[in-house]
Amino acid sequence: MPPWIAALLVVVATYGFLLVFAWRHGDEILFQPREASYGPGEPVELITGKDGQRLATVFLEAPKARLTILYLHGNACDIGDVMWLLEDMQSAGYNVAAVDYRGYGLSPGVPSEAGVYADAEAALRHLVDVRGLAPEQIVLYGHSMGSGPGVELALRHPVAGLVLEGAFVSAYRVVTRVPLLPGDRFVNIRKIGRVRCPVLVMHGRRDQTVSFWHGEALFRAASEPKMAFWVDEAGHNDLAEVAGEAYWEKLAAFSTLVLEGRRRPERP
User: Fold this and answer.
1) 191/151 Cα distance (integer angstroms)
2) For labelling alongside 30, which of 2, 63, 96, 170 has CA 20 to 30 A away?
3) pTM metric for this prediction
4) C-alpha–C-alpha distance, residues 62 and 74, integer Å
5) What is the largest CA-CA distance in the chain?
6) pLDDT tens-digit series, residues 166-178
7) Which of these is catalytic: 207, 211, 214, 255?
């Protein structure tokens, strides 16, 4: 057998293995829920989605808040892990809501891409239908995997703004960089350009989980009005801590942009 044929067979076999592996194990690699970091006694409210799914949520109210942040966390944490940040946002003058997707925290079930979209949608609907907030008062904030439901909801609803922190262009391209495998999850790069609300993309240049180029690519693809915030020394989970006051200043500047109400017209 000629060497080039042998090499080709190896490539084909390797690619076939990757296809099967991604198809069979994609969800269990992407979604990594752990034992809940909080208990039933915590200030968590259980809501019910349209499909009957019970979801753990939290709502922190700030006096005279003009905006509500709906925080959508990443793939390996829950509400309890990010409560410190949610409370800091509340102290900065924002109402703050968060949801644990099915399988995370005290939300029962098994996570999936469709499930995450549905759970984020349920959290948004609860803010609108139960708490009486208008979508135009809500800023979606997606960290890492949470960027997927953040971008998806920003396409479906006339929200005030979208913040992406440590976001990826798509889930599989965190590993492959190029679009190598079919069946990719959370393909944000195909959607971000159609988001009509103001967008803020934040990324740490030392992010070793989701490389910095993902943030750059999403920012380039997003339409105006948009803002970027690159933090030289930050990694994947410490951007707010490393950036310090500059983080809150950027969030405040974005809030000012959002409150100006500059939404783009519908595309023909």
Assistant:
1) 7
2) 96
3) 0.88
4) 24
5) 76
6) 999 999 888 776 6
7) 207
Q: Where are the strands (E) in the chain, listed by range?
A: 45-48, 54-60, 68-72, 95-100, 138-143, 161-165, 199-204, 226-231
Is-catalytic flag, 144? yes
The strand pairing partners of 26, in sequence order, are none
42 sits in the region (left: phi over 0; alpha: psi -120 to 50; else beta) called beta
Residue 47 contacts residue 128 (beta carbons within 8 Å)? no
- Residue range 76-120, pLDDT digits in tens: 999 999 999 999 999 999 999 999 999 999 999 999 999 999 999
Identify the H or E element spanning 30.
Answer: helix 3-30
For 242, the token pair is 């490393």
Exactly one of 100, 143, 236, 255 is catalytic; name it.
236
Q: Which of 107, 112, 144, 170 is catalytic?
A: 144
Residue 207 known to be catalytic: yes
- Residue 234: enclosing H or E segment and its boundaries? none
- Domains for the chain: give ranges and CATH numbers: 31-259 (3.40.50.1820)
**3-class DSSP state for residue 40?**
coil
